[in-house]
Write a structure and sequence with these properties.
Layout (H helix, E strand, L loop, with lengths): L1 E3 L7 H13 L11 H14 L8 E4 L7 H7 L5 E5 L2 H15 L1 H7 L2 E4 L13 E6 L8 H10 L4 E14 L18 E3 H10 L2 E5 L3 H4 L8 E8 L1
Parallel strand pairs: 1-4, 2-3, 2-5, 3-4, 5-6, 6-7
Antiparallel strand pairs: 6-9, 8-9
Helix pairs in contact: 1-4, 2-3, 3-4, 4-5
């Protein structure tokens, strides 16, 4: 397994918080009623229902400790899983968890790529085109300026048929629900859906809201979390 580490200068609070969680409780998940394994498995089943096949190239953006990678690394063909996160500790702990489940030799055989990203310009993966991208429980923790950075740069790493899924916290404004304290877990950012749609349209994308009841029940909707699918206009 290849781990690439690069320096970065943003979201230092979130990096420190994720580092701490990865060290103390690597199976932590933002939706406490769903355990680490189940959270990853639900995402995995959802992606398969959306047509994900073993030959597809996949980017797990904000992969954390590999709740989803725990299943995709084994499922996808060799080298087709890329996980990116701001926390090197999360990537290392995630690798250990996956190795524990499927074995170190199997992980080596599958050759997943884990990258500590510095921002959302995708400079670490320029030249690649991913068929599927999942961004789960990332923008719920980031100000909308980072979502805008994502939208402005995602075109660099997709093709005409790429499928992109991401979660946002719905609200009528784009301010945080609370302000960070050291290692706080309460910092959430609401996004105005109309503003999100406008940003996407201005950059050549359209969006749809995915019905999540089949795979998540009401665990997302009751927290006002929407799963969006992005595609070319």
């Amino acid at each position: 397994m290849l781990i690439r580490l690069s320096s970065f200068s943003y979201t230092q609070f979130q990096r420190r918080w994720t580092d701490s969680i990865a060290s103390d409780n690597p199976r932590f998940i933002h939706f406490p009623r769903i355990g680490w394994e189940e959270a990853g498995y639900r995402q995995f089943l959802f992606l398969k229902s959306q047509g994900l096949k073993t030959h597809h190239k996949f980017l797990d953006l904000g992969c954390g400790t590999l709740a989803l990678g725990n299943y995709l690394i084994e499922y996808l063909d060799r080298g087709n899983y890329t996980g990116m996160d701001i926390s090197a500790k999360a990537l290392i702990k995630g690798r250990e968890l996956v190795e524990r489940r499927i074995g170190r030799e199997k992980v080596k055989e599958k050759r997943p790529i884990l990258i500590q990203n510095r921002d959302l310009t995708f400079s670490e993966v320029i030249g690649q085109a991913f068929d599927y991208i999942m961004v789960f429980s990332v923008f719920t923790l980031l100000p909308i300026k980072h979502f805008e950075e994502f939208v402005l740069n995602i075109e660099k790493i997709i093709n005409q048929d790429s499928k992109i899924f991401l979660t946002i916290l719905l609200g009528e404004h784009t301010h945080p629900l609370s302000f960070p304290t050291p290692l706080s877990t309460n910092l959430k950012h609401e996004y105005d859906l109309n503003l999100v749609q406008e940003l996407l349209l201005l950059n050549g994308h359209k969006m749809g809201i995915v019905d999540t009841n089949e795979h998540w029940g009401n665990s997302l909707s009751e927290r006002r979390v929407a799963l969006l699918e992005l595609s070319h206009r």
